[in-house]
Amino acid sequence: MNWIRISWMLYRVNVRARMQYRLSFLLTTLLASLVTVAEFLGLVVLLHAFGAIKGWNVWEIGYLYGVLMTAKYVYRSFGSAINNFEPYLVNGLLDQLLLRPMPLLLSVVTSRTRMVGGELLQSLTVLGVCLGRLMRDGTAGWTAVPATLLIVCTGTVIMFAVGLATAAVGFWTTRTEDLSVLTDNASTTACQLPLSLFPDWLRTLLLTVIPFGFINYVPAMFIVKGEWGIWTIPATVAAAALALAAALALWQVGVRKYQSTGT
Amino acid sequence: MAMLEATGLSKTFATAVPKAGKLREIRTLFSRERKLVTAVKSLDLSVAEGEFVGFIGPNGAGKSTTIKMLCGILHPSAGEVRIGGLSPQRDRRRVARDIGVVFGQRSQLFWDLPLKDSFDILAAIFRLGAAEKRRQLSKLEEVLQLREFWDTPVRRLSLGQRMRGDLAAALLHDPALLVLDEPTIGMDATAKRQIRDHLKLLNAEFGKTVLLTTHDMDDIETLCERVMVISRGELLYDGGLERLRARIGLPTTVRVTYARETKLTPGMRIGGGLSDAAGEVAVTDVQGREAAVSCNREHIGVMEVLRLLSEWGDIVDIRVEEPEFEDIVSRIY
Known about the structure:
B: alpha/beta, six-stranded mixed β-sheet, 13 strands
């Protein structure tokens, strides 16, 4: 496909532009890694103190964390523009993108790249170590590996869908930063722990409006806990597809409402 | 056939009255409070192939909103746009290939990369083959002379150079219609003159149809055969520059400084003995030894005005000013 080649070229252009400010790039990468490591250590300390939380041991919770964070950073690497959409609306950056003979969403996505190598390596390590341990313990079989790969993909799709819907709301409200703190940061933090810890209303919210529960908790109930049946896998795929379709529909309507900015 | 045609074009912005405080976005989203602002009211316009049309009006008149609807960036609340027979909203990607757009205050060049890289990227986006790109660039080089700053990162270009780069970027895919939103904004006189020469050439030699918005009357005077004036979202004038000028005349303000305090007062008319044809010479402003009078050079020469003023004291300094074009337009309509 021609668009894939163009997207790849734009990705490299973004990286090259980013590299014009090498020191700034190094500093942000370093800081971002520190933040994720600190965040993870916090979780480890918590688990170490309690041993297990409501029947979830350290490795199982580490698995939830690993899946969630891997999906998050894969999404951030290509969806950085969607995740920071406000400037596109406020500064009228979207105007220029609308003048390109490219599908708009592709133009937006390829207009900005964030390099997440460090964070991704860290979350993949956590995921790998935890999954390995669970397989050695016999809690999970070899099928857990392809299943985990699949849910990292569906998880990325769910992250992207929620991000896209949040960005699309901006076509009406212009400002999206506060909303994305709720839909992105808060939901991600919540889903680092098993949903069963939360009150009903929050669990319902995380399985419907912001379906982050389908990124890790629902499929993990089958893959590593074995408590739920194999139906969780098609249910996860369906949830991801539904979320994406809904977000795309909202985006389509939103684009027609785009107001641009005055000069 | 008309290159560009708009019928009944309207745009009403419904903005939610923003809320303050916690979770303001969410509360704004669900608030029923809406403020309706009509930016463009039922505009009809048509531009034929090869024309160079100026689109002018005061700030907030709806110029940019109209331009953005013509290019497919905004969706009109009512009415229809046709560019080469296609709707820029429904067929945005097709129309994007037929128009080149430059916003003077923004750039579509890649800020941190050498200028030439932007052309490589745009050529790929517009799917130009290598040979086609080379041909286009050498043609544009003739008009815009880009080679001297070919390898300079865009962020280090001067405003005039950047605009030449942006024009080339907009023309790379060889569009028939060029839409320019304030292309000379912020430039010094030399750069402005250069850009105007380039635009003239693009229209005359390369046959590009050009629609230009500007606040600079000299842009209009040197470039446009036809002018459209818009104010408060409505088209007030559409026709030749000559006829518009005849309607406006040559309004001028003459400022003089007297050797001593002057007895002139604002609102006074001087030169009572003049014939009606000379029009009105009225004092608009007095401050100590300084006085300003307005007149129309179409009807009375500046020397004559000075002679009238000198009857009121010894003049030590004079300044002649032409008011902003927008001021005149809004005063006339």
